[in-house]
Amino acid sequence: MTTQITADAPPSAASSIVTDRVQRRATLPGRITRTHVPGRDGRLHVTRPEARRDLSVIRREDILRIVGAALGALTATGWLFTQLLPFQGVLPFALIAYVLFLALFVVLISFDEDRVTIVDRVMAVVIHSAALLLLLVMSVVVVFTLVRGSDAFLQPNFWVEDLSVTGPLEPLTQGGMAHAALGTLIMISIALAISIPLGLLTAVMMAEFPSPFTRLVRTVCEAMTALPSIVCGLFIYATYILMFGFDQSGFAAALAVTIMILPIIIRSADVVLRLVPQTLKEASLATGASHWRTVWHVVLPTSKSGLMTAIVLGTARGIGETSPVLLTAGWTTFFNANPFSGAMVSLPFATFTLVKSPEPTQIARGFGAAAVLMALVFLLFLLARIIGGKGPGILSPRQLARVRRQSAQDMERIEARAAHDLAPTGFAPGGEARPTREAGR
């Protein structure tokens, strides 16, 4: 509600009149001071205070609007598909229904809300829709893989046997993917053992010791993050196998996987290390600590959770690759625990090979291998989250209890030392009097 003040007096006189009235009304109990905004014509406009809008609360009206817009969009799209539009299929129906849903939702909000609230609600709906779509796609992929491979991985022999005595026509009660799971674990373990120290040291060098060489290394790492996986396999095949004369093995595949995951770990760790507040480093240096001790005791512990995330990203990239393993590891149906001798197969390569077979049992074994790979990746991610812990400054209940116990022990030690210093004068073991702080006083 806006009240316009007009008078024959000039704007300065009208301004003084309004100011006097506002000051008198502000002294009265129960009065709300109004805002005075000069208009374009030079006159003052008295407005009521704007009501505070809470955009973070989901009200019942918002849910009713979403449901109403969704129902209206579905019915309108169904009528358009059956009467007017020549489109067919689920994808055009979903796209048109979603566009109509947003339009109807905007119309319903515009009856009661202003433009700021409309934009906020629409963006919230779009973001939540994208998250729901991503979750739906991931669920479909996981469920489809589990359903297609359930006939294979539900058999007990699938987890403990290999395919050495199992032919394509053998039933699913014979053979398994244990040799491929073992090969995957060996390959990724060797790759991580090489890439984690090199990646973290390189990231520390780029984040803490800037130089022209550092900028060159960062540029090369950024370019290698988009390197095709087949190029990594070709490089190891041309050098390690053809040039040096070694055979295809699990170690050769691990080297190819290392080339893939090393730039990812370096770039992710570099970003995490540069996010550490500069004030923490300055505080450590102010206490007299060296640069290396500051990095070791301040920077790395502070960014531990982010560094584990970088390692997890690299692991996820390398554990599911097929092209480098295809050229460097070879194919075998036997157990092989020696990564330096003989061919070694991995779960992605086994999946790629088995699903190409025309036999239903082999296809089921391939999807079962993919299901085992997903379970293995989930376990590795869970282990990384447990090792990485929470963010800096956030303690788990066990860590908080350990800190409290340590504080209690420190307090007991301080009290015991204080009691010893304040003890009465005694005699030293040699028979001479030993003055204490009280005796000195």
From TrEMBL:
Transmembrane regions: 63-81, 93-111, 123-147, 180-204, 225-246, 252-273, 294-314, 334-355, 367-387
GO terms (BP aspect): phosphate ion transmembrane transport
UniProt-listed CDD domains: TM_PBP2 (cd06261)
One protein family per Pfam: BPD_transp_1
Keyword presence, Transmembrane: yes
Entry function: Part of the binding-protein-dependent transport system for phosphate; probably responsible for the translocation of the substrate across the membrane.
Protein family (similarity comment): Belongs to the binding-protein-dependent transport system permease family. CysTW subfamily.
NCBIfam families from the UniProt entry: 3a0107s02c
Protein name from the UniProt record: Phosphate transport system permease protein PstA
Source organism: Microbacterium album
Annotated gene: pstA
